[in-house]
Amino acid sequence: MLDWTDRYYRHFARMLSTHAWLYTEMINTGAILHGDKMRHLRFDEVENPLALQLGGSDPADLARCAKIAEDWGYDEVNLNVGCPSERVQSGSFGACLMAEPQLVADCVKGMRDAVQGIDITVKHRIGIDDVEHYDYVRDFVGHVAEAGCNTFVVHARNAILKGLSPKENREIPPLKYDYVYQLKRDFPHLEIIINGGITDHADTAEHLKHVDGVMIGREAYQNPFTLAEVDALFYGAAPVARTREDIMQAMRPFIEAELKAGTPLRFIARHILGLYQGQYGARQWRRMLSDAKLLKDANWSLIEAAMAQTIRPAFETE
User: Fold this and answer.
1) Of 149, 170, 287, 297, which is least surrounded by CB within 10 A?
2) CA-to-CA distance for 32 and 53, rounded, in angstroms?
3) Is 64 annotated as a binding residue?
4) Is 78 among the annotated ligand-binding positions?
5) Burial readout 256-272 (b: 16 or more C-beta within 10 A, e: otherwise)
């Protein structure tokens, strides 16, 4: 989820659930090895458990990045073999790597050899282009598992490498959850996590009858309050916060510290626009926190003013 699950969103998500496993946006190896490490890798300890998702196809570069991730305190390194974007393909990584299971296996082995105490996992699709048969993904998983990968996050759609945009690739290829269920039956010793088109907790509970875990992406971003029920429903733990106002008050120290450090409020505000989705005042909340004029030099008082718009008046008249 490029440009979405940055550290500002992840801190926000952690205010909703202390147990859900969080993933960074996909970061290519070159950005880490030759770019600004602080910008790409920095995170707050509150975000753990946290996985660094990497894009790359050179085993040596990925191994170096995995070691860096371990040294920085990440809990997992996840290799993205699922992104269908043509920009990603031009760098020879993402979903196009499903056509090269041996290379993926070499990448996994290189990363596993480089680290001591963190997991190396793979996120992938069930196939590419017009390859529709289950054997393809079964053989891919089997081959990569032999290199030491024990956890596979499976987006239950094919990736169409040419002709569809990334958005269309999330909507047009049909979901085949049964393929993912079959992977778990064929590889009971592996951890199989399902992804793709999952939007509510009832569906999550149903999937968990067949696989080990569920990954939710855009729904958790666009309707983030759904995460507030995760700890109680799936981990048997008390919820972190009971109301949206609780969540924002929990975010306040982080936001004010970031503002003091010079971070513009807009960097954080864009991630919380969906908090009041479906609630009274949601439109006003979104409008105020996406208004460039209001956000210019804004501080916590703008968030308080936006929250005030979500309080339904005791008496309303026409």
Assistant:
1) 297
2) 12
3) no
4) no
5) eebbeeeeebeebbbbb
